[in-house]
Specification:
Blueprint lengths: L1 E5 L4 H12 L6 E5 L8 E4 L2 E4 L3 H6 L4 E4 L3 H13 L3 E4 L15 H4 L9 E3 L3 H17 L1 E10 L6 H12 L29 H14 L5 E8 L6 E9 L5 H10 L3 E3 L11 H4 L5 E8 L6 E8 L3 H17 L5
Parallel strand pairs: 1-2, 1-5, 5-6, 6-7, 8-9, 11-12
Antiparallel strand pairs: 3-4, 8-10, 10-13, 12-13
Helix pairs in contact: 1-10, 5-7, 5-10
Length: about 325
C-alpha cells in the first residue's frame, strides 16, 4: 500500500501524516511530496525520517492512493496524471468538488455513492464537512427547507502565514500579513474572495457543497463567513427550517446516534462545544440544540470541529479507509 501525500510539508499535510499514523492505516511505503524547493527535506512518519520527493517521482512510483493538499492549481494539473496511472486521488482543494462526475464525500454521510471506478474523489470544505455531518440525520428525518449559517473560522483555515500573523500581533511584533486587517482582538466577515453578488467564495462553498453532499438542490442556504482570532477549530451557528415538524428529544437522539458526532449540551452547567476543546480531535461537537421560538419547524444548533482534522485531514484519510475496506485500493 503505497500512499502519496501531496503537500506533505504544509499545515494540513502534516496533520494527514499524523492521522495516517494514529489511525494505523496500512501504509507499506509513504511518499511525501512537496514543491521543488522542499524536495530533499525530511518528514517524520512512525518515528522514521522520510525524504520529500517531487510530484513526478511520486507519479512514476504508482501509489495506490494519493491524498492532495497542495492547492487547486496543483490538483488541477496533477490529479489527472496520477489517475491515469491507476492511482486513486483524494483531493482536499476546491478544484474538483463541483464537477458532476466527481464524488464529494463525507464518509459517514454519503460514502455509498462511491464506486471502484472513481479515480478522483473530492474532500469538501472544512466548514461544510462539520455542518453536513450534523445535518444529514435531521435532513433524512424531517427534510431541510432552509439554512441560515454564520461561521466563526479559525486562522488555521488560512494557513501557516495567518497563524504567524496572529502570534506576531499578540506578541506586539510587526510581520507579514495574511489578512487585510489585524486579526488579534478582532474579527471580520471575509473568507475567501468576494464575488459579484456580494457573497464570498467560502460562503458559496457552504451553499453548493451542502446541496451536493445531501443530494438536494432544493435546500435554500444563506451564509456569512467570519474569521476569528482562534487557532485550531471552526464554529458555526446554524438555523434550520424543516419541511416537517420535529421533536427536540428525537433530534438529540438522532444526533447522538450519528457516527462522528458528540453531543455536548448542558447549558446550565456551562457545557457546550468550544474550539479550544475540539482542537486535536476527530469528532464534530454539537450543542445549544433548541427550538427557534420565532418561527415554526425551526431549530438552532452550534457546531464545532477541528478544521485541520475532520475538516480536512481526517475526512480525507477516512475516505481512504473506506476504499481500503471495499478492497478498491491495495
Amino acid at each position: 500500500m503505497k500512499v502519496a501525500i501531496v503537500g506533505a510539508t504544509g499545515l494540513v499535510g502534516g496533520v494527514m501524516l499524523k492521522v495516517l499514523e494514529e489511525h494505523n492505516f496500512p501504509v507499506t511505503e509513504l511518499l511525501p511530496v512537496a514543491s521543488e524547493k522542499s524536495v530533499g527535506k525530511k518528514v517524520i512518519f512512525k518515528g522514521q525520517e522520510i525524504e520529500v520527493i517531487s510530484i513526478k517521482e511520486a507519479i512514476d512510483a504508482h501509489p495506490s492512493v494519493a491524498v492532495f493538499s497542495a492547492g487547486s492549481e496543483v490538483s488541477s494539473k496533477y490529479a489527472p496524471e496520477f489517475a491515469k496511472t491507476g492511482t486513486t486521488v483524494i483531493d482536499n482543494s476546491s478544484q474538483w468538488r463541483m464537477f458532476p462526475n466527481v464524488p464529494l464525500i463525507v464518509p459517514e454521510v454519503n460514502s455509498y455513492i462511491l464506486r471502484h471506478e472513481n479515480k478522483i474523489i473530492a474532500n469538501p470544505n472544512c466548514s461544510t464537512i462539520q455542518m453536513v455531518l450534523a445535518l444529514a440525520p435531521l435532513h433524512k428525518k424531517y427534510k431541510i427547507k432552509r439554512l441560515v449559517v454564520s461561521t466563526y473560522q479559525s486562522v488555521t483555515g488560512t494557513g501557516v502565514k495567518a497563524v504567524q500573523q496572529l502570534k506576531n500581533e499578540r506578541a506586539g511584533i510587526e510581520g507579514e500579513m495574511a489578512y487585510p486587517h489585524r486579526i488579534d482582538l478582532n474579527c471580520f466577515p471575509h473568507g475567501g474572495t468576494f464575488l459579484p453578488d456580494g457573497c464570498t467564495t467560502e460562503e458559496q462553498k457552504l451553499i453548493k457543497e451542502t446541496q451536493k453532499i445531501l443530494g438536494d438542490k432544493t435546500i435554500q442556504i444563506t451564509a456569512t463567513v467570519v474569521r476569528v482570532p482562534v487557532i485550531g477549530g471552526h464554529s458555526e451557528s446554524v438555523n434550520i427550517e424543516f419541511e416537517n415538524d420535529f421533536d427536540l428529544a428525537e433530534v438529540n437522539s438522532l444526533l447522538k446516534a450519528m457516527p462522528g458526532i458528540v453531543l455536548i449540551d448542558n447549558p446550565s452547567a456551562n457545557e457546550y462545544p468550544m474550539p479550544i476543546n475540539a482542537e486535536g480531535k476527530d469528532e464534530v461537537f454539537v450543542g445549544r440544540v433548541r427550538k427557534d421560538l420565532s418561527r415554526e419547524k425551526c431549530l438552532n444548533m452550534w457546531i464545532v470541529a477541528d478544521n485541520l482534522r475532520k475538516g480536512a485531514a481526517t475526512n480525507a484519510i477516512q475516505i481512504a479507509e473506506y476504499l481500503y475496506k471495499q478492497e478498491w485500493v491495495k
